[in-house]
Amino acid sequence: MVNLPRERFVLRKFLSVSAIAVLLVAGVAQATTLYNSVSDGSLPEGIGSVLGGVVWQDKLYVLRASGRYDSGSYSTGTGLSFDVENYLPSSIKISREALIALAGDQLFVLGSRNHLYDFNLATYSTVLPFTGLSLPFAIADGMTVDLVGNVFFSADGGISKFPPLSGIADLVFGSHVGAIAIGPDGLIYGIDGDNNEIKRFHAADGTAAGGFVLTGTIDPAALLIGPDGRLYVADGNGGGLIYDSQTGALLGSLSSAVANLDASGGRTSLALDSQGRLYLWDANTGVHVFDVATPEPATTWTLGVGMIALGLHRRSALR
Fold first, then answer.
1. How far apart are CA 281 and CA 287, in angstroms?
2. In whole angstroms, how far apart are CA 310 and each of 20, 30, 46, 58?
3. Are strands 286-291 and 277-282 parallel, antiparallel or unpaired?
4. pTM of the prediction?
5. Residue 122 neighbours by CB under 8 Å, 6+ apart
6. What residues pair up with 72 in beta bridges, in sequence order?
7. Which of 194, 190, 193 shows the shortest CA–CA distance to 203?
8. pLDDT per residue over 238-289, tens digit each?
């Protein structure tokens, strides 16, 4: 048996422990949580002609091109169930290209011929009697509304801002932007699908506010920013990813078992209720519910943790 000098033995032991510690920290920092769907289901009368969905007072409202909207809710044990159907007033004309967005209890609908309607879900009445908007584009890709009533549309790669009660845009900004959403920080977030990144803009003047590249393999189809700052991106290939909206760090993923979200070119939308349930709707497979408030036991780790397990195994085998 060869006896090593004490100084070399201590140094080797220190380096081994240090290397393991470094790998462990790196692995933990990059771990992401996988969330599986807790409920999947079709809508009443099937999923055809559905335009999108929003959540208001913890109920899911799904709008159809006919003007019909189905309202439903999720409960543990029962899953997702829907009430009898309702219809928007006949004065609201909707097309297959319609967009919807929610601000408070106001449901904004961009209908046929670029008519914008503001429908109050609480009072069942039309709020803004717009006769039409002077939109600088034929079809909008996305729409979002801030809490003071400014309406933002994305189309042809740019974003147009319309003040409350106005049919004329007072600001046009950005480029290469598809789906958009407004965050709790008041910024406008937009998907740049060509470069696989998130762009941020100040809502007041349209100036750029940074952004980040979407890590992971993803075909971004829709986005949502939760009140806690987590950014949810639906993946057209199935499922979705969850990011920190400020740093761009990857936090988790939605099960890719929810697949082919944009296979038919239909719209995909995301909505979040106060209980931390995320609703993902798409035109092909219906509504899927994820409990993103409760971490799941299934966790995806980076290669760093795998290297730690391999290193420990090899060291024990040498003894």
1. 4
2. 11, 18, 50, 46
3. antiparallel
4. 0.79
5. 105
6. 60, 82
7. 190
8. 788 999 999 999 999 988 666 555 544 456 789 999 989 999 887 667 788 8
